[in-house]
Each structure stands twice: as structure tokens, then as C-alpha cells.
Amino acid sequence: MMKIALVGATGNVGSATLREAVAAGHEVVAFARRPDAVEKIDGVRVVEGALDDVAGLTSAITGSDVLVAAVTGPVRDKTFAQRTVPNLIAAVRDSGVGRLVLVSAFGAGDTALKASPFARALYRTALKGFFDDKAAAEELLPASGINWTAVYPVNLKAGQPVSEWAAEPIEKVKKVPGLPTLPYSNVAKTLVQLATDQGASGRRILVTTKSGWKAV
Asked: Where are the alpha helices (DSSP H) in 48-127?
């Protein structure tokens, strides 16, 4: 079992990840701006703080095995990732935490090239600023000096988890047809699995429906 640090514990993916991590037997420390909004679960320690407080984040996650960052920011905020990811990297490096598992979104950067024509048009118009921000921030990861994994979920929704889904390295994916949609809880299950998988370091992982991808 591991000690997992989590940011984004009050969001859709983050709250589901909190529950999945505890259900799997892991100890969790949640770093949250609004501690009262974090679900009260035995085995979870909540630390109050904001993501622009690198010292506070570093202190909160020290002693953890991995930091899972399930924060995406508002779609209208075109610099959120570029402001936040450097702080996450610095906190992981300064705290000695082993890895960062960063939740992005399918459509960011070169992943858009694998999308359907309709989805790609959406990513490059209405969501362009949102995805450009993520892509720019994620360019920092390879040279960061930390172990990292970037996760690219497709469209997400509330609901019960499906029994089968896919988590595949981006380089093995040729195409993501249509607009596949997956429950938040399935992404959460994948994040907990990746948090415990040292073999995922340095990998970029697509999370989609079982049939929502085609291999190279």
C-alpha cells in the first residue's frame, strides 16, 4: 500500500480518485483550498492550501509516494495549467515525492491529431485556449527532472463505472473515433492504478472506452 497525495479532491475526477484510493487500501493526503468540501472518509488527511503556495504544498506532500494532480481549471482560464504545473513540479522535486501523475485531457497538444475531424475542429476552435494552455504546461515535464505520468481522458460524465475500458500509451493509439465518453470513476480507477505503477513513469496515457480507440 502507498501514501498518495492528491490535489483536486473536490472535483469530479479528484473526488472519485479519493474514494478509489481509499477503497484500494492506500493512505491519502488531500491538499485543498476548501478542506470542508473534501468528502469525509477514514484514512484521508486533509491539508488546507492553495496551489500557488509551493512551500505549503511541498510540506503537505512530503512523505508521500506519489502526487496525483486531478485539477483542470476553468475552461475560460487560458493560463491555469501554465501557472499550476510548475508549482506541482517544484513541490514534487523539493519534497522528495517519487512521482507526479498529472491529469490532462485528450485533445491537448499532439493528441488532437488522433481525434476525429469533428472533435479536432472543436478542440481547435471553442476549446483552443484551454488545450493550448495544457500543451504548453506539459512541455515542462520531460525536462523537469522528476518521474511523471500524463493522463489524457476522453469526454467524461457522471455515472456508474463501466466494466471494461482502455488505458493505452499515446504512441500506440492511431485514432480516437467519434466522441467517446467515460464515467469519472473509470478515470479514477486508472489514476490509482498508475500511481502504483513505476513502469508508467515518463508515459503519456490515453483513457477511453473499450472501443473508443484504434491501434497503430
From this structure: 54-61, 80-95, 117-124
CA neighbor of 10 nearest in space, from 43, 52, 40, 54:
40
Distances (CA, A) of 192 to 68, 70, 103, 186: 9, 11, 12, 10
Compute how many other C-beta atoms are within 10 angstroms of the C-beta atom of residue 174: 10
pTM of the entire structure?
0.95
Domain ranges for the chain, please list them.
Answer: 3-215
Q: Cα separation of 28 and 11, whole Å?
A: 16
pLDDT for the residue 134: 97
- The per-residue pLDDT for range 164-188, each reduced to its tens digit, is 999 999 999 999 999 999 999 999 9
DSSP classification of residue 162: P
Q: Per residue in 71-90, pLDDT tens?
A: 988 889 999 999 999 999 99
Task: Report the CATH number of the 3-215 domain.
Answer: 3.40.50.720
Matching residue, cell 495544457: 134
β-bridge mates for residue 181, sequence order = 155
The overall average pLDDT reported for the chain is 96
Please give the Cα distance from 41 to 166 (Å, whole number): 28
